[in-house]
Input
Amino acid sequence: MSNLTHKYLTVNKFSENLLKWNRYRNKRKMPWKFEKDPYKIWLSEIILQQTRVEQGLSYYCNFIEQFPTVKDLATADEKKVFKLWEGLGYYSRCRNLIATAKFIHTELKGVFPDSYEGLLQLKGVGPYTAAAIASFAFNLPYAVLDGNVFRVLARFFAIDLPIDSTAGRKKFAEMAGQALDKKKAALYNQAIMDFGATVCKPVAPDCHLCALNQSCRAFAEGKVQVLPVKEKTVKQRTRFFYFFLIRFSTVVAIRERAEKDIWRHLHEFPIIELDSIEPPEKAIETAVKRNWIREGDVTKVIKKKYTQKLTHQTIHAFFIECEVEKNPKGLGEFEWSTWQQMQDRSFPRIINDYFSDHYPEYSA
Output
């Protein structure tokens, strides 16, 4: 292990102190901690990608209950898997989850790769997830490098290189590898992630109660709030959706969203996207031109604006309810679903929020 030093801390000592904190002070409990089954570790890591632990916990438990083995997941009805994932967001993760489960079940005879390189070949598994599975399941000496680890290392060693730059990623990967206790890879990786999540937090870190604060360079130099550094800002896009709930007798028009865009494989009502917030009449006019409805078919315009923030975009949605007397010609690509059938379909959170407000009997 390298003996990279500054006047506050050696990498070796940092690792030693972190493991001591983990042994005596780390009280964080999660169902996947100390798990050795690579399937359960992989499942937890995919669910927690870009997701808070508090949100992902119930999803993990539900998935393990419904699909206790990779075979159960691989052979499940995909609609059932998406329904269970509903509300978690980033649905490309769910598509990768299904594809990887099928690959392991059919091509690898149900056996997870037991090497870092082999794990990297799985769809949806990048360097961080591969390192996590390799270290937690097989105790292989690979350091995890997630947001918590970036933050802890940046603060303890006062590294101001942007974590999203090429030079920064290289530097932090080097630091993470040097700090790793290679004989206790699983224990160390879990410890540094727990420390970042519970003590060295992004906002309001517990610096004055931190057992390692005397060795933290950022704490000594008053730089805690400015580290880690990012050089790029996420470009945000704002979109405006007008959904039409169109009833025909006892059924409603819905379709599976197939475009390579947000919410792919989820279901939605007929939708018109406009460039800005416009009066509902503009969307209604477009719906009439598309032969979805006639003007007199509109029964209710929902006044509430529904909003959902995603990583790269913010969606503002409006809902317009309609009743048609015959099957409109313009809705040929849509299926007609009863309310009961819709309970088995997966919808974006923004539509589920609308259901909760106006059709709680469906949402229950």
About this structure: The two ends are 56 Å apart (CA to CA).
